[in-house]
Design a protein that fits this description.
10 helices, single chain, two-stranded antiparallel ribbon
Length: 277
Amino acid sequence: MSSDLRVTSMDKLVVLGSEYHYYSLPLAARQLGDIDRLPKSMKVLLENLLRHVDGDTVQEEDLQAIVSWLQSGHADREIAYRPARVLMQDFTGVPAVVDLAAMREAVQRLGGNVEQVNPLSPVDLVIDHSVTVDEFGDDGAFAENVRIEMERNHERYTFLRWGQKAFNRFRVVPPGTGICHQVNLEYLGQTVWHTEENGRRIAFPDTLVGTDSHTTMINGLGILGWGVGGIEAEAAMLGQPVSMLIPDVVGFKLTGKLSEGITATDLVLTVTQMLRK
C-alpha cells in the first residue's frame, strides 16, 4: 500500500524545456483525505514523508497522522524526517569530518574501499566560529583579521580543505565569507532541490537540519529548517532520518503598522517574548 501511494502520487511538470517529477500532495490527498487547510509547514513535512514512505521507517499511518492533525491541532506520533541537506559551522563540523576520516581509516585497515565512506546527504560547513577581531578602525582591518585568522587556524583549515576534496557532497565555505545563518539565507538555500532517481529528475522542497543556533532563520524563506546537535547532524549526514514528534503549529496574525521609532527587531523580540509565554 505504501509503495502504491508513492506511485499514484507521482506527477510531472516541465520547466524551461526540462521535465521534472514530483510527489503531488493533491494526488496523495485522494487516499489520505482533505489537506487544503493544512499549514504550509506541515505540507512540507507531509511531502517529505510521502517521498520516503516505505512501510518500514515511514509508514502510511505517519502520513495519515499529519492529515488528522487538522482535527485537534496536535499529534503525538513520532515520524522520521529526512532533511535534504545538512548545515554545519566549524565548531561542530570539524569533529564530524574527523569522524568520517576515522571511518575511512578503519575501512582501509579492514581492506575495504575507502571511497564508500561519504556523506549521503549534501553537507555545507561554514567557517565562522573562528573569527576574532584583532584589528579595527581602518580600511585594512578586515583583510588583516582574515590573514591572522588563516595563520592561527592553518592546520584546521588545511584539514577541512582536504575533507572537501576527499568526500563527495561536502562543501566548505571559507572564512571571511559571512556568518553561518547569513550564508545559508543568501547563498545555500535553494527552495527546491532535485535529484536523479531511476533516470528521472525528482524535484522536492529544500529542507535542512543545522548545528548553528540560528538555523531556523531559513524558515523565513519557506525552507523548513531545524537546529540539532552534532550527533543528530552526523546521523543526517549519513542518510539516517531524524526522529521527531509531529510538531505543533502556532498561528500569529499581525495587523496595523509599526509606530515611529519602533524597529523590526523590536517587533521580532516582542513576538518571541509572547510566544515563550
